[in-house]
């Protein structure tokens, strides 16, 4: 029996297109060029932050993020950045008595911006607040502490094989991979995903019937 669902953020709840475009603009690279290199890094199974090194060797994301903030071009999360299925799916799950959490690899500022959206969730946290990031087991230990009935009765939903499905399964969670965003599409049929994901879904709308039948 599933009593809780915890959602990743980027490309699970949020369409990251605008933020990646803002980074491309910040470093002065055409958006399609930046996207192509990001795709190559993704396909190689590497950290997407490595994309910046192809354009600016030694690029420090944390420092540049602060510079963006100082320039008035900092991180933004708005209603339009949510995928259309997010609010109805989370609402439907809560109406069926499922506890809802949100936990992903985002900044502390992103957590504040997400809270301002007033999503139908019982708890929300980011790696920036916790000081530990996926795929670390310590991150999923924090998720386990967050949920009401432990990992065995919780589904972790994400788009990433190595950051979401594999470490969440290793930590004892049930897992679902959503086929959207570059990672979700790339890895939906990956043998490791098929081994470790309890479900591969096309939309969050599928979850209430899958988990609450």
Q: Gyration radius, to the nearest Å?
A: 17 Å
* Biggest sheet overview: 6 strands, parallel
- Percent helix among the residues? 40-55%
Q: How many alpha or pi helices?
A: 12
**Oligomerization category of the chains in this entry:** single chain
Arithmetic mean pLDDT:
95
Structural class: alpha/beta
Describe the global form: globular
Number of strands: 6
The secondary-structure element order is EHHHHHEHEHHEHEHHEH
Report low-confidence residues grouped into runs of 5 or more: none
Distance between the termini: 10 Å
- Strand order, sheet with most strands: 3-2-1-4-5-6
Sheet-strand content, in percent, reads 5-15%
Question: Would you write up a description of this structure?
Answer:
The chain is α/β, with parallel strands linked by helices and 213 residues long. It is built from twelve helices and six strands. A six-stranded parallel beta sheet has the order 3-2-1-4-5-6, with helices on both faces. The radius of gyration is 17 Å and the shape is globular. It starts with a strand and ends with a helix. The mean pLDDT is 95.
Concise synopsis of the structure shown:
The protein is α/β, with parallel strands linked by helices and 213 residues long.
Question: What are the salient characteristics of this protein?
Answer:
12 helices; 6 strands; 47% helix; 13% strand; globular
List the topology elements.
Blueprint: E1 4-7, H1 17-27, H2 31-43, H3 51-55, H4 61-70, H5 86-95, E2 99-104, H6 108-116, E3 123-126, H7 127-130, H8 137-146, E4 154-158, H9 161-170, E5 174-178, H10 181-187, H11 191-196, E6 199-201, H12 207-211
């Amino acid at each position: 029996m599933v009593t809780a669902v915890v959602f990743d953020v980027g490309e699970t709840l949020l369409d990251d297109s605008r933020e990646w475009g803002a980074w491309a603009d910040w470093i002065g690279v055409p958006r399609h060029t930046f996207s192509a290199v990001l795709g190559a890094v993704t396909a190689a199974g590497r950290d997407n932050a490595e994309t910046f090194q192809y354009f600016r060797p030694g690029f420090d994301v944390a420092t540049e993020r602060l510079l963006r903030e100082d320039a008035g071009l900092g991180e933004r999360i708005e209603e339009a950045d949510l995928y259309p299925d997010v609010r109805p799916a989370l609402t439907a799950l809560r109406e069926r008595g499922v506890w809802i959490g949100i936990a992903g690899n985002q900044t502390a500022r992103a957590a504040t911006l997400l809270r301002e959206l007033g999503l139908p969730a019982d708890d929300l946290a980011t790696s920036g607040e916790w000081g530990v990031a996926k795929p670390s087991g310590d991150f999923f230990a924090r998720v386990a502490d967050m949920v009401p009935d432990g990992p065995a009765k919780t589904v972790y939903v994400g788009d990433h094989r190595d950051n979401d499905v594999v470490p969440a399964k290793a930590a004892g969670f049930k897992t679902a991979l959503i086929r959207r965003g570059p990672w979700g599409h790339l890895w939906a049929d990956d043998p490791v995903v098929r081994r470790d994901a309890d479900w591969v879904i096309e939309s969050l709308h599928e979850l209430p019937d899958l988990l609450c039948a």
